Task: structure prediction
Amino acid sequence: MKQLYKIEVASGLEYESIAECGLGLKLNDKVVVQCERYLDFAKVTKICGDPIEDEAEFERQRALNTKGRHIEGQKIPVILRIATQEDIAKAKDNDVQAFTAHNRTLERIKAHGLEMKLIQTHYSFDKTLIIFQFSADGRIDFRELLRDLSGLLKVRVELRQVGVRDEASILGGVGTCGRPFCCAKFLNTFNSINVKMAKQQGLSLNPQNISGCCGRLKCCLQFEAEIYKEISAEASQKQAEDDAAIDENELNDADTIQLEALREAEPSANFQRPQPQGGNRPPQQQRPRNNNGQNNNQQRQNNNNNNQQRRFDNNQNNHNNRPRNNNNNNNSNNNGNGQPQRQHKNPPKRPMPPPDKQVKHPLPPEA
Result:
């Protein structure tokens, strides 16, 4: 039976490998790994799952779940043995030579004028492969650089571009909290992080406060995102219940007020007013009615009638005393013979001026 392990070749270079259960590997053990075309030196970082019974079935499932090419090749690497002191010394010597190759590669990058940042250089255990990791803003055409480095170092060269978060994980550093980067310390994968997580936690949305040294959102925003999400859901549910209770109370109060108003407007027929204690109350004497208002109205009406009668009499007297003189009118309408003067329908026109005062206009010239 075999066991699946996760190993770290260098900072930022991790992949899975299998080994015999009889090796008895533990965490942080140094091992020698057989990859597809070279040997490598690595450290065990994780023990994955249960032992594997059928290696062929495991390879088939791995091929279905894997997209693209692996870092170490098409086949899964196999751990050969636990590293000895000689293997550890050889690995340290490879690191020294990788540092020298790193400096020479920086010079060649500057000579080619490429906008790329070289992050790390790693030599394989048998020195048949050298891997350069770099970061850049976009795609880089490094074909000329690749041919130049192959002729300079006399080994197989591989250039790999990584993102800004991977760059921070490889280089490491100290965050704004005063602790080492989470991605460099214990995070193995980068999960999706969005601004909604910061909003749920009530943090300031200032990019300087929620962004890490890599320029992306801080990885620590995801640590408490689920807890804040649950708290927000509980608070929303409680608020909904309180609103429903308030609405129900308001409805009950409105029904009570309406019922009391109906009772006051329509008292029951069987309702009897309570009698005062201390004997029967003597009947009230009927108060005399006050007719002052009615008398005033009658007097006002009589005054109006008198005023109307007085105005009628004055108009009648004026009509009788008016002088009637129609002689002048009759004389004006009669002529000297005593016959009425004839009236013309159309008034006479303005008389023509004499010939000497008439204005003569010249005739137009003949055509």
